[in-house]
Amino acid sequence: MDAIFAPYPFLRKSTMDDIKNTLKQQIIDALNLQGMKPEEIDDNAPLFGEGLGLDSIDSLELMVLLERNYGIKIEDAREGRKVLNSVQSMADYIQEHSAKNRA
After folding, report:
1. 51-81: per-residue pLDDT in tens?
2. Is the predicted pLDDT of residue 14 greater than 80, yes or no?
């Protein structure tokens, strides 16, 4: 089973805070949010609309980020809306997905 996680070894022993902090930096990098720091992104703030102000193009970038960095592919739009709601919801999904793959 460890071979499955070879590209994502940090998921094996990461805490939720580690995942969220890494995810925030990945979001900043992927979306080129210049001048923004990870600590400026509230874990529970909405990523779209009044929160971080992301749009539908950004959601595609986030889906690519999840697939590239965590091996997670989201194909259902309703599921995607729930997963991409906030950094916390993304981190929860990453942790849940990685736990299922380890079992």
Report:
1. 889 999 999 999 999 999 999 999 898 999 9
2. no
Number of structural domains (the chain) is: 1
pTM above 0.85, yes or no: no
- How far apart are the C-alpha atoms of 17 and 47, rounded to whole Å? 18
Is 28 inside any structural domain? yes
The answer to whether residue 5 sits within a structural domain is: no
Side-chain half-sphere CA neighbours of 41 within 13 A: 25
Q: Please report which helix (H) or strand (E) contains residue 71, including its range.
A: none
DSSP structure class, residue 84: T
Q: What is the CATH number of the domain that holds 62?
A: 1.10.1200.10
Let me know if residue 9 belongs to a domain: no
- The dihedrals phi and psi of 102, each to the nearest 5 degrees, come to -80, -25
Q: Residue 70, Cβ neighbours under 10 Å: how many? A: 22
Residue 23 near residue 89, CB atoms below 8 Å: no
Smallest CA-to-CA distance from 86 within 35, 27, 1 is with 27
Q: Domain limits at 18?
A: 14-33+43-102
